[in-house]
Amino acid sequence: MSTPAVTEPILDVSDLTLRFGGTTAVDAVEFAVGRAELFAIVGPNGAGKTSIFNCVSGVYRPQRGSIRFDGEELRGRRPDTVAQLGIARTFQNIELFENLTVLDNLMLGRHHHLDYGALAGLLYLGKAKRAETENRRVVEEIIDFLEIESIRRSLVGMLPYGLKKRVELGRALAMEPRLLLLDEPVAGMNLEETEDMARFILDIRAELGVTMVMVEHDMGLVMDIADRVLVLDFGQRIALGEPGRIQSDPAVIEAYLGEAP
Amino acid sequence: MSVTTEGARRRGAGRGRPLLYTSYAADQAIWNTPAKRVWTLALLVAVLALPFYLDRDLTSLLTTVFVYAIGGIGLNLVTGYAGQVSLGHAFFLGLGAYTAAVFGGEATDDVVGLGLDMAIWLPLAGLVPALVGFAVAPLAARVRGLYLAILTLGLVFIGLHIFNEADSITGGAGVGRAPAEPVLFGVDLTTRFELFGTRVNRDMVYYILCLVVLVVLAVAARNLTRSKWGRAFAAVRDRDVAAEVMGVSLLRTKTLAFTISSFYAGIAGALLSVVVGRISPNTWDLFLSIDFLAVVLIGGVATITGSIMGAAFVVLLPRLVDELSAYLPFISGHTGEGFLSVFQLQTMIFGALIVLFLVLEPRGLYGLWVRVRNYWKAWPFSY
Q1: How far is residue A118's CA from residue B286's CA, in Å, rounded to a whole number?
Q2: Pick from B224, B226, B245: which is nearest to A57 by CB?
Q3: What domains lie within chain A, and their CATH numbers?
């Protein structure tokens, strides 16, 4: 199982280990993601895919290993400072702000691009007003890109599931990330919605050049659009490589289908 | 460029399309429709004219409404917008009142007072509680929900103890002290004077003063809530993990909410002490905090307009019950015989209304207003 070395990776994870009491959720996992790559992480339930995302974005504190983003160590950083470095993510069970409109949710993605203090906010003159208007323009471009113009004033809590997923992707894009972590972007979607989402993901890479790491159970989607795939089982890396090679890897087949008789 | 787009919007409005926006600035404005602009202005004019037609005691009561609205907006920022339940609001009101009294009050044999101008003591009455709020916030930011309620409840009791013991500042338990002197830019606001042939008394001056402070602070709060900080408040309230992953610092956001809320409380406390005329340490107890929670809950969580409506409701209801009780046979007046006293009836109605609002319209008076507005927007259709 040889892996072609990634030159100048944007995300470099080595020896990452996360334990909850006696359970090792992530066990000495190593991988590197190249610039503008579409990298997928797959594995059975409980393999530690989302745990890796939580370690990268600072929600969990791994016991061992290092996570380097563009040369900067992420371990020990709080989630908000990780976000400010240019890492955005979506969640498996949509984590939108349900009492706010789609616009406000997307504007929250612009939080650290809006460079004004609390006093400027109280006055809402000059700098704050200008910043709000300029960032509104950026948000409107994302609304246009994701084709959600008609719902921009709707409360997110009232939207159907598929649209919520799209809004959450928009909120992550609004952060203008250099690395985008997508946690099951098409979970629970029908074929048409899945195809729409796949198109958006490919467009994001083509038009914005954003590096993406995607956790996904839909193997069809992963095999279609991912550049490389990391396969996990019980927190351990069992395979890493191009989709075609992964499909025929005996370790992967064993993890998914059980041992051949 | 903004000039031309503004012009385009005006023309759009002129053609009867008030909701056609051609600039983001116009869309993001507080008064974003001509109707809102006209009605707000009309309301403001009416409110300004009111004291010239009202009795002195009613003028004074409305002044109390304004003061409660300032405090209510402060509590709504931290509890309604940022979702951090605070029972400690009364403590910050008290802190503001005594800061004002120390800097603006007269020194006597018993209490200290610097006798400074209102232009100095009023901002200080906000800043000192804001500093204390800033100092307490890191503690409060570590806990949430019920635990935060208990933590802030502790503040009220610590405050009561300090206010009762610090004789040289507060006058001590059961004695109290005079509040700050309302001398603004060297002009004593308590003296009567003539304006356009009308005699302007102290209550009218207080009324206008508190109204001006309320309008300034309400607009500032509304600005804050539509800025990145207001969105951050709501994000922290709704989903704190997601907020953090979006780059919102929980500690900074909660600290900001507590600090600004305490500033508003301090100003409200200082003005309340001036309007009431004498302050005793036991004023700043848990019941005052609950009054302000009632302002937020009845007015509507996370709305500034609602806080003002809630304040009017909480302050005016007891008076309304008092007036009406004269016509009810089973209520004893202040002296007469009856089944219930006025005060008992007031408390019962107050409690019942809080329960009714929580069950029937959790968005409060503002929610009722939105319903009425939407009904007439769609009229004659039901949806």
Answers
A1: 30
A2: B245
A3: 11-86+177-257 (3.40.50.300)
